[in-house]
Amino acid sequence: MEEPTTGPPPAELRRSLGVVDGVVIAASNTAATTTIGVGLGLLAAYAGRQTPLLLVLAFLPVLGIAGAYARLNRSEPNCGNGYAWVGRTLGPWLGLLAGWIPLAGSVIFLAYTTSLTGSVLMQTAGRLGVTSLPGWTLDPGSTAQSTAVGLVVLAAVTWTAVTGVTRAARFQAGLLVFEYAVLLLFCGWGLAAGDQPFSWQWLNPLAVGSPSGLAQGLVLAVFCYWGWDAAFSVTEETRDPRDAARGGFIALWSVLGMFLLGAFAFQRVMPAGEMAAHGAQGLAHYSARLAGEPLATLPLVALLFSVLASLQAGVIPTARIALAMSRDRTLGPVWSKVSARHGTPAAGTVLVSLVAAAIALLTLAIPKLNEAILALVNAIGMLVALYYGLTALTCAVRFRGQVRAGPGPALRAVAAPAASGLALLTLGGYLVHHYATMSDGFAVSAANGWFNLACPGAVLALGLLVGAVARWRRRSPYFDRPRGRVPPRRKEVSA
Fold it and tell me: Does pTM top 0.85 for this prediction?
């Protein structure tokens, strides 16, 4: 009997993307402007003035994992990424989680980005003098108002993602150029004009307040880089699968440079407490410290472009992970329907947005937007550490024969991925223990340990339930595939 595969693409998926498109999709999904504008304040709450250090430390395992992705993608290009690779090497249940976690995590990401988009829109409107609508005073810090406005934007970007990934990449490219130009201008300005003295202590790991603060900050910093792997999610729509790796690496190094520039600039302008206090409004506050209107509105417009691009870029890889899982019947058939007109998984894209909208509405239980974002980011950070770790270990196991090829291949194919994967899995395990012991009871608050564990725990439990349905009801062939056998590549389909 021929082995069922998840392998490269059905003909309906159009190979129309190049390396530049991969860079744009990965960079937009990583959203450097959003991370600088929102994430630096969250990092400062954990790490104080050691925020630049955390960004460097988190980059090291992420770089090792990027190398693992590139090697695995050369062996088996698949829009399901870890779902296909981990399942074939470590077993179907771990593989299922390696697919389910980024799928669920991306939907959660879209939910909080939806609310963040609404908040940034209202901040921008406020800078332009629009502070109220008939019967409605605009409050960018309100979860309810931010979510309502963001849902309208989510519907619009979903339409652009449905009508074609190439069109979406072109749209994101224009936004990205503007964002980076504004960031370079204002971060350079902050470095030159800031009144906070530079200190080498900013790069001292011993200056972080506590082990738990370091661990929480590192998970959050890893989350800041999350999104570079979106380039691999469109590998089946890329003319040359190697372009996925090129796009991911270029995006990853680019965002490292932007993150460090932003971190040093923010700390030259603001004390740590001031950074942490402004959270989701951090970039707006930073720009106001440097410039008057209308110039101070430019970074806010860049942030608006960033959240719009990341919202759209988040929809694209999520629908493709679901498509890969649906091809194996681990998800229902609706997820693998490809639009004959647009060449995209249109039905899955719409469903992803609908589920994200429903989760965004659930965050109304947390009235302060900063706390809602922090709670969701904590959940996604632990999940990202888990599936990145599994994928990196998969590379080490699949290519373990490279240890006989010499020190260089052994380091790149086995040692670096294994060390990176184990580092993230250990970090995630430490955080689980920390959250389980930090609170006596449950409360809906980002400061409550059990609440921080509830969301990732629910995601994992739901993933196992989905797997049980696929294994014993749908009789998915994914669970019966022989391990270790990589299918031959199908003939590529031209654009």
Answer: no
